[in-house]
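Sample entry (310 residues):
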Amino acid sequence: MQKILVLRGGALGDFIVTLPALAALRRHWPSARIELVGNATAAKLARPRGLLDSIHSQHEARWSGLFQERLPAGPLQPWLAEFDLIINYWPDPDGTLRRHFPCRLGQQFISAPALPQRAPAAAHFNHALSPLGINPAETFFKLSPLTSASAPIPPTGGRSPLVRPIIIHPGSGSAQKNWPMAQWLALIAQLDPAPAILLGEAEFPAWHHAVTPRCPILADLPLEQVIAQLANSCLFIGHDSGIGHLAAACGTPCLLLFGPTVPSMWAPPAPHVYVLQNGAELSTISVETVKHAAAQALAGQRPHFALAPL
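Predicted structure, serialized as tokens:
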């Protein structure tokens, strides 16, 4: 196997749960060239760690040809024919994409639904590789900081970085997966020392004025710098989010607040990840419950709570 193409869409968390499958491909074919079409920002995490050789953005217009009855004339089909194996994790509800493959003699094509159908999510993407004789058991991939990015990055505003701080990320890709701001602020006011608040572009407008000045703000950092900060923290508190998956991948103890999504499917499958859930509404998780669970996690104890059924 000389050239492999993986089609995988989605956001940061979707990419991270695919890392074990990419790692299995690399172990099985260490000298193969592996390319990916997907979230180019997230996929940059895999290239310096040896899992990918080339990355193509999922937003390029040329991929629309894969969902047409006939591939348009031009360079797309000859380029696709260069690959010995194509693995598709993109949605393909009517099979249009599948019908274009194999596009030459000897090419292999395998596909799996984009929405995971077995838990944890990483196991779904691993299982898709079984026709290749690859059956990885690992459903978690550790992301170590790169040497060039391993030093803690000072927060914005000229403040000095905390020594192994608690880091809070109050956002996610959906408002329904977020604990209410009032409850976050109440928790932040009770934590000592003050936690660092990790804000992306989506959270910054609402949060950078709401947080007390005693809290360092880590604003809109590149992902490698986020990894450096998370790897240097003693606890991460957040939601079912891409940053939550990233924190877990760094090996940081994580306390993740879940609401409408299913932890067995979407919580990172690692012993240092603790989940709080009390039904589909996150607002029903009390500030005192989160504070107590955080104290237990910091003490090296697994927090004692029940996952409420949805």
